[in-house]
Amino acid sequence: MTDIVRPLSRRFFMSLAASMALLPSLAYAASPAESYVSKVGNGVIAAARNNSVSQFRSLLRSNADIAAIAIYSLGPYRKSLTNDVKSEYYGLVENYIAKVFQQNAKKLAGQGLEVKGTSDAGDSVLVKSVLNFGGGGSVPVTWRLVKRGGGFRIFDVNVDGIWLASTQKTNFVSVLKKNNGQISALLAYLRQ
């Protein structure tokens, strides 16, 4: 009986060991959100290295939820946005964000983006990453993704502790508050 058990036990333990050897690779398989952030993050790095507003704009158009960001940025003045200027406003917001990225291109032109993990945030998914630079420096970057059309869209990005959409909202609301809530004043500000 021991002669029969011994070969079975050896085979069983060999297959168990082989299965366990595969577990780390399965545990570290990137989630769809992480793969998405890795792809977009590398695009941001490339656009930053090229210092290209048009590349940033293209990335935003393909990957960001511009309409949601634009509406959020109006804060309590969102009801003032009329349909006749909505399209222009969305385009101006896209250009504004692209210019902000381009103005910070040197800070974004890292060596690579390392994705660290994902967490569910209820209505969105947070993907934590680190932008690595030569010489050992790095900056933490957290991406807030929303599900849209069977995939993901970027709603906000936190770079080194600062949420970009929240900062943009503060700026836009300030302009609106100084101008009695007139959307036309914000549009003029965004055209500059």
Characterization of this structure:
This protein is an alpha+beta fold. It has a single domain (32-191), classed as Nuclear Transport Factor 2, Chain: A. It has 8 helices and 5 strands, in the order H-H-H-H-H-H-E-E-E-E-E-H-H. The chain has helices at 2-27, 32-50, 53-63, 66-73, 83-103, 105-108, 164-178, 183-191, and strands at 112-120, 125-132, 138-148, 151-159, 162-163. Strands 1-2-3-4-5 form a 5-stranded antiparallel beta sheet. A hairpin with a 2-residue loop joins strand 4 (151-159) and strand 5 (162-163). Helix 3 (53-63) packs across helix 5 (83-103) and helix 4 crosses helix 5. The longest helix is centred in the first third of the chain and has 26 residues, at 2-27. The model is unreliable at 1-28 (pLDDT under 50).
Main beta sheet strand tally, sense and closure: 5 strands, antiparallel
Distance between the termini: 87 Å
Query: Which structural category fits the helices and strands?
Result: alpha+beta
From the spread of the alpha carbons, the general shape counts as globular
| Assigned CATH superfamily | Tgt2/MlaC
Widest β-sheet, arrangement of strands: 1-2-3-4-5
Number of helices: 8
For the record, the CATH class is: Alpha Beta
The mean pLDDT is 86
Q: State the low-pLDDT regions, or none.
A: 1-28
* Beta-strand percent range: 15-25%
Question: What portion of residues is helical?
Answer: 55-70%
CATH architecture: Roll
What is the helix/strand order?
HHHHHHEEEEEHH
Computed over alpha carbons, the radius of gyration is 23 Å
